[in-house]
Amino acid sequence: MFAQADEDVKNSFLYKVSRKVYKGELIPLESGNFVSDQNLFNYQAKVLKELSERESYVVVGRCVDYILRNHANAISVYLYASKEECLRHEMEYMGYTQGQAMKEIKRMELQK
What we know:
There is one protein chain. By secondary structure, this protein is mainly α. The protein is built from 6 helices and no strands. Helix 5 (83-94) packs across helix 6. The longest helix is centred in the middle third of the chain and has 18 residues, at 37-54. It is elongated, with a radius of gyration of 16 Å. The two termini are 22 Å apart. Residues 8-15 and 17-22 have low confidence and may be disordered.
């Protein structure tokens, strides 16, 4: 559910949320908006914050650099690969043609 929400909203919602202050409000299960993008993000953020108080862990994505920005022991790492390596990876891992891979890479770059 979270992964699909991320894919559906990366272009707009998570970017906007990263510019706002996370307040942690959760929508009740009975609400029609329970599975809204914002509520899913809030649940993810709540879990990530609570887990950070109990133990060490690694997260890829999920705006965790923003969510844990005030956590003294949080470490954020940015991974980079050349366009050629990204193209090769998309073609091999995803089975894309070169054209499909280039299109997907451009789509992902626009999300940054």
